[in-house]
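Hi everyone, sorry if this is the wrong subforum. Our group has a chain we'd like a structural model of before ordering constructs, and none of us has done structure prediction before. Sequence below.
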Amino acid sequence: MSNETNHAFGVNFYTGSKATLLNCIREGVKQPYSFVVTPNVDHLAQLQENPALREAYAKARLRLCDSRILQPLLQRLGVHVEEVIPGSDLTMDLLKWADRDRLRVVLIGATEQECTKLRALYPGITLYHHNPPMGFINRPDEVQQALQFVRDNPSELVFYAVGAPRQEILASSIESHERTGMGFCIGASISFATGSIKRAPVWMQNCKLEWLHRMCSEPKRLVRRYAHDALFIVPAFMREKNYRAQKTRPVKQDS
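Answer:
Right subforum, don't worry. Here is the predicted structure as tokens:
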């Protein structure tokens, strides 16, 4: 699906529809392992500072625009993303499909209470759950334990729900020859799916205000992050815009 990607901020974005994506996933889960990431403004900022995250992004099969804030900026840069595909929405679609078709799902992250709720909501899913402890990414033995859990439990879907950049680093550490199926870096999507965290009302999502709802819901965690993201994205957008303008500017011919 490389013909449906376009480049900005150092990322090749998927630009197709969600319907096309879901068809790709239905085929992809039968193939050697690959994984999907969901870039937003925070991820773009982290990519500038984190080589391991850049490496993970480079290995991803698809990079979906997760952000209604980011999409119009991409459009102005000539990257015509057909539709925003929030990771939380995609996760819900995948859970419904997995429940209906009685698929297997490996879940890395999320609490036991959330898994209990998930099993009750989607009884058709065979769920394998491993929740690594806080700070696991800095302990090689804990990282290997999580990766081995993914390798040891065959499934169509793997959900990495331990936050960026940890989930992307984990997802990229599984080699294509080690298993089949597709991995998805989903952040807090399980918390939304089970109601542990309440999503913004649809009208706020449509008005591109979901970030405000989340910030008000979790101010201690998100105020500083969103401020950092805002300070990053404005100059980053201007640099991208200027770079593209210079590339398209005709070269003066010597008379």
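For your construct planning: Residues 2-200 form one domain. The mean pLDDT is 92.
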